[in-house]
Design brief:
Elements: H1 3-16, E1 27-35, E2 38-46, E3 53-54, H2 60-72, E4 83-89, E5 94-100, H3 114-121
Helix pairs in contact: 1-2
Amino acid sequence: MTRDELIVEIGRLIAVDRKASAQLWDGYALIAYYDGSVSQLNGFRYRAGSPGEPATPEAFELEDRIDALREATRIDGEEPWRACVLRIDRGTGKATADFVYDEAERWHVTPATAADVAERARP
């Protein structure tokens, strides 16, 4: 799959995921964070200006698609990105992805950073 096809597929997996779509949302953000051999996915859904609500998808194949996106966007001779912020606007159906190579730690979700990261990731 191409980069664009993978982004569309990831968006589709999120839209049909039971946990991510348990409640209505206007916007959604998925943050993929890589630190060495460890990867972490965190999702947030947004509705009408309310704070982002944790809603990480349960879809097992999502991690495989994120890994494939990481490889599909890899630049020869460079390290792969360390964080990806995928945003979905339900109203327009548009999905965008930002790839972070430096300072990826600012996208690392912990209990202490979750609210801040959710707000910065807002679509």
